[in-house]
Amino acid sequence: MSDTTTLDIVELLLTAEIYNKYPEMDVNDLPKNIRKNYWSRTQKGVPKPISVSRSDIKKLFGIEEIKGQVFALPFLDIDELTSKMKFTSFDVAADWFQKQETASERIDQNPALAYYFEEKKKVAGASYKKARAVTRPKEVDREWIESLISEISEEETGEDMLKLVHIMAPEDIVQPMRSLVLSEEQKEEIEKIVKAIEYRDYLKRIGLYDIGKILLVGPPGTGKTSVAKAMSERLSIPFVEVKLSMITDQYLGETAKNIDRVFALAKRLSPCILFIDEFDFVAKTRASDEHAALKRAVNTLLKAIDEISLTNDGVLLIAATNHPRMLDSAAWRRFDEIMDFPLPDERMRKEILDIVTREIEGDFNTEGIAPLTEGYSGSDLRMVIRESVLNALVEERTSINQQDLSDAVNRFNKRAHIKSDEYVVNTGGF
Ligand SMILES: Nc1ncnc2c1ncn2[C@@H]1O[C@H](COP(=O)(O)OP(=O)(O)OP(=O)(O)O)[C@@H](O)[C@H]1O
Ligand SMILES: [Mg+2]
């Protein structure tokens, strides 16, 4: 039986040859690690042909010295001069690979291999469709985002656009949906949006264009930003974040132009999520007697929202606000879904505590803490846990107990009390 590294190397060589040989193979037919290794930033893809050398093996699998076992394979040749590896017979290599114990597992996760074994060798069980379904597309890669960014930054107004937003690759998102505690209603909402995106062409065909603009509403720290990010991870599309305060802060006169820039950028990055945080900015400026430039900016924003479309532009728009009551009907009617983020109830608080303490050792039960944290947001609960851990560390303990947790809750309550007093004074009881 051959060892894993030998199989890794043969799989890589087979994949490279299949990718080079068949014009219908595209970059999403390569498994993620191979795709990332051969990615060309300037060409925004993996140019054909790809070749395999010792340095690729080292980068991909961390193998410093290729072992004798690999050299012993009768169908493989290494050019000592260029250190390039190639098959002397592709067919012999493919037959050998197929006989290995873990071949079918590997084929299931490698679209290029699955394509070859299903279409060309008619191997039962090999499924290109299945392998494509489990292989995440290039849009999740950091490399993909970097290519787009470098292309845009070379354009005339590129730099101006890029500094207004924060862009993240799905693979860099640390909290996937499963690590967030959501109500049934929220889960249903999310599922609806995911399906709408999956069936985007169908919806377009039947004339339902009005999807893909979502407003997340709820108090601070209830998971709005986290859910928007997790959507990007779930849908495998980049996350483009803009804070409205950021684009108005510096040059008021530029605000309307900046809004146009952000939307133009989102279209360039599509398919993507455009996340507009602090959406209540719209309400604040409309209600008050603000500078004319700001009013113009708000109108520009509302118009830009009207004009952008998931079906036509591939941009899923998600906005978030802490102050729903400040929004007027002009703002509300721009969204086809409103997702509510209330403060978590006791059951949800316990689940959040469980998730946050997942990796933390100690003798404690979250059930006892959940009832003491009425009115806490998810982010408050995180803070309580962090406090407990830090306090234990001060006593040189890397495990926490029930006392640590309840002490942290007490301290948090005290601090929240001080903060809320301040809040009332500063905002006139807003
Ligand atoms: N329902 C939840 N499940 C798990 N973690 C949560 C939940 N709600 C909040 N958190 C945690 O709290 C932190 C802050 O949440 P997040 O930034 O998403 O809140 P937000 O609603 O966007 O707040 P803000 O209105 O202040 O922007 C996150 O790190 C997240 O892990
Ligand atoms: Mg937020």
UniProtKB/TrEMBL annotation:
Domain AAA+ ATPase span(s) in chain numbering: 210-345
MF term (GO), any: ATP hydrolysis activity
Keyword check for Methyltransferase: no
Keywords: ATP-binding, Nucleotide-binding
Source organism, top-level taxon: Archaea
Protein's name according to its UniProt entry: AAA+-type ATPase, SpoVK/Ycf46/Vps4 family
PANTHER family: 26S PROTEASOME REGULATORY SUBUNIT
Protein family membership: Belongs to the AAA ATPase family.
